[in-house]
Amino acid sequence: MKRNFFLLSILNILAPALFFAQNPKVDIQEYEFHLKLNDQNNIIEGKAIIDFKYTESSDVLELDFASEENGKGMKVDSILQKNNSLKFSQELEKLNINTSSAEEITTYYHGIPKDGLIINENKYGDRTFFGDNWPNRAHQWLPIIDHPADKAKVSFYVTAPSKYQVIATGTLQEITNIDNENSLYVYSSPLELSTKVMVIGVAEFAVQHRGKIGEIPLSTWVYPENKEAGFYDYAQAEEILNFFTENIAPFPFTKLANVQSSTRYGGMENAGNIFYSESSVDGRRSSEFLMAHEIAHQWFGDSASEIDWSHLWLSEGFATYFTDLYAEHKYGKSKLDEKLQQERRQVIGFSQGTKTAIIDSSRTDLMELLNPNSYQKGAWVLHMLRRKVGDQNFWKAIQQYYQKYKFSNATSTDLQAEFEEVSGKDLEAFFKQWITQYGQPKLKLEDTYKNGKLKITVRQLQKNEFEFPLQLQLNYSENRSEIIDFDITKKKQIFEIKTSEKPVSIDLDPNTNLLFEEAL
Question: Mean pLDDT across the stretch 242-250?
Fold first, then answer.
């Protein structure tokens, strides 16, 4: 997901500290959601058929499901199992169902979603319905386990006024005119997904089917009022999809639909149907890197997912760096360097106010994890890892990691293990200092020149100690320069270099390979 900083600052003030842990007693196998929408009011009627199993003995099935409060929220009407009514209690964010039998249950409910399913008018004044689940907002309109580690198959049966088109997770199975006023759309995914990327989108769309990339149908869904601009802008998905498919693995889902929507984020990487903000369409293709970010998520975040919220960089750091890699592929190394230098500034700025590591389990408001540690620092870790093991090993390890954890969940340690296996290097110190330790090196450089010898002193001024390779570029007169490589292993190190003349200047990290800040 690409962040919208203004909206997130407001939401962080308003959002309660809600944190859902995985329920270790239950494994959801499949969801089947039947939803009825209307234009008279914002009430939705829902039926959720849930196939599950207990992983340990229990007599209560606990789901995440927001209850009704002050006229908004979901009210459960009844729950059946094998045609028998089950007792249940619904309070605040939890739905507890009394059953010791791990057999399919059917939950009937209704209400006005407080969040998660956004029912509103778009920028043209037309009514729309868009799922917007991240991080744990899906339980505001669906009875589920709202945690990325609990993956399940999903189907959506959406009945809506016939003027709308419906896009949803999975492959379109059916369109039926129910009566003169309503139509039924059925989508189904045979692949197991986290609830954060299971959505529907209902609006008056202009739809362009762009054919198949490999075996994957590619389509564009935009508002009719900006159809030409939207079709033009979103056509860039073809080149982006090709790049990732060729370098990572085949596209993991059954379709890719790029959808103009009212998501609160710049873009939201819903599996197989990405929702972009309304402003992403401008006819100037200014959202190319936004699209690359969200398409990269289809592999990293949607298919191979973080096992818990604290490992979010395995999603957002990957999407950020793979956007950088796409930029390098299309525009050259200078564009990669430009993006990395910008990301480095964002990391440094964030670290000056917040002393946390990339892996941060202290957060209870998950929106706070949408920060430069998860995004830009995560990208920098991958870039430094690429430099440490070499391009060939980097891509091989990425592909191996993805193949092992696709449609599953991983930790940062799992990623480390794959890179160690491919490269043959011990990466324990690398991952410890960059992933679990706060900050980055703060470097001060001092130099003196005497009798043909240049003495360079490198000091680390930050509290924590780092070990890293460092390049210095010595710039001489007459446009001559040379690059020298050092291994920094201590807080203070002195190096001597024989040279026939004193450099006019010395540049730190000329090839943009190190996350650091320079002491003034």
Answer: 98
CA dist list (Å): 9 to 118, 130, 265, 352: 19, 21, 12, 18
In total, the chain counts a number of residues equal to 520
Contact (Cβ atoms closer than 8 angstroms) between residue 278 and residue 265: no
226: how many CB neighbours lie within 10 A of its CB? 19
Backbone angles phi, psi at 475, to 5 degrees: -100, 120
The CA-based diameter of the chain, rounded to the nearest angstrom, is 93
Enter the DSSP assignment of 103.
Answer: S
Q: From CA 168, how far away is CA 172, in angstroms rounded? A: 8
Judge if the upstream peptide bond of residue 190 is cis by omega within 30 degrees of 0.
Answer: no
362-399 pLDDT per residue, tens: 888 899 999 999 999 999 999 999 999 999 999 999 99
Say how far apart CA 223 and CA 215 lie, in whole Å.
Answer: 26
Contacts of 391 (CB under 8 A, 6+ apart): none
Strand ranges across the sheet with 88-91: 60-64, 94-98, 88-91
Q: What is the pLDDT of residue 8?
A: 44
Please state the separation of Cα 227 from the chain's center in Å.
27
For tokens 């599953």, the residue is: 408
Please write the tens of the pLDDT for every residue from 297-308. 999 999 999 999
What domains, with CATH codes, occur in the chain?
24-204 (2.60.40.1730), 205-298 (3.30.2010.30), 305-435 (1.10.390.10), 442-518 (2.60.40.1840)
Pick the closest to residue 136 from 86, 59, 83, 194 (CA basis).
194
C-beta of residue 361 within 8 angstroms of C-beta of residue 373: no
Both tokens assigned to 252: 């993991």
Q: Which of 114, 27, 33 is nearest to 66 (CA)?
A: 114
- Cα 412 to Cα 13: distance, rounded to the nearest angstrom: 30
* Helices (H), ranges, 104-236: 227-234
Burial of 260 (0-12, 13-18, 19+ CB in 10 A): buried
DSSP letter for 81, please: E
